[in-house]
Design a protein that fits this description.
- The protein is α+β, with helices and mostly antiparallel strands and 200 residues long.
- It has two domains: 57 residues, no CATH class; 128 residues, Sandwich (Immunoglobulin-like), CATH 2.60.40.
- It is built from five helices and ten strands; from the N terminus they run ααααβββββββββαβ.
- It starts with a helix and ends with a strand.
């Protein structure tokens, strides 16, 4: 047994050399043992790719932008000189104050309504009890002079005015359609105003 061992080793060496010599030829596909060794290496590397699930978690880290806080006050205060116009609600937002109105034509003829543009002498403004003014920033749902909205009898128009934010702690204020509405006697002006609006 021991004497035949070198012959076996020599035969293995010859076979190995023959296999290496055949590798470049077209029958290299017969070298199955060499081909099966490659997948073993790939399988060993596969666990390193388990980092992929961490990448899928990345979108969860980008949380949606939180909703802006707002406070809505139901006011339902009619314009004293013309109850067809009602200040329905006041919405306090971090960047603005929004006043929502509704005008209902309760008469028998068509009427027109409008607001003055920003910076106009008859533009709306909010006046605080200490005299500070908050200017108009925009309007929605109502014509801006020189345009006018026609409201037929029984018709209704909802619109809103936007102002700068109310200072913290403010719960009462006035709303005037220009300085003339503030100074004009009640019942003698066609301009709109709401005195002592209360947020509660």
């Amino acid at each position: 047994m021991q004497a035949s061992l070198p012959a076996v080793v020599r035969a293995v060496a010859i076979l190995t050399a023959g296999t290496l010599a055949l590798a470049p030829s077209s029958c290299a596909t017969t070298n199955a043992p060499a081909a099966t060794s490659a997948p073993a290496v790939e399988i060993a590397v596969a666990p390193e790719d388990t980092a992929a699930p961490e990448d899928t978690a990345a979108p969860e880290d980008t949380a949606a932008e939180p909703a802006r806080p707002k406070t809505v006050f139901l006011v339902n205060q009619p314009f004293k000189d013309n109850p067809q116009l009602v200040l329905r609600r006041v919405t306090k937002l971090p960047s603005s104050t929004k006043l929502d109105f509704v005008f209902t034509n309760k008469g028998n003829s068509t009427v027109t309504i409008h607001v003055g543009p920003i910076g106009d002498v008859d533009a709306f403004f909010v006046e605080l009890l200490d005299g500070r003014r908050i200017e108009l920033q925009g309007s929605e749902g109502i014509a801006i002079l020189p345009q006018r909205d026609r409201i037929e009898p029984g018709g209704k128009r909802q619109f809103s005015l936007t102002f700068a934010p109310l200072p913290a702690g403010v719960t009462r204020f006035h709303v005037f359609e220009g300085e003339a509405a503030k100074s004009g006697p009640s019942g003698e002006t066609r301009l709109w105003f709401f005195r002592d609006v209360k947020l509660r």
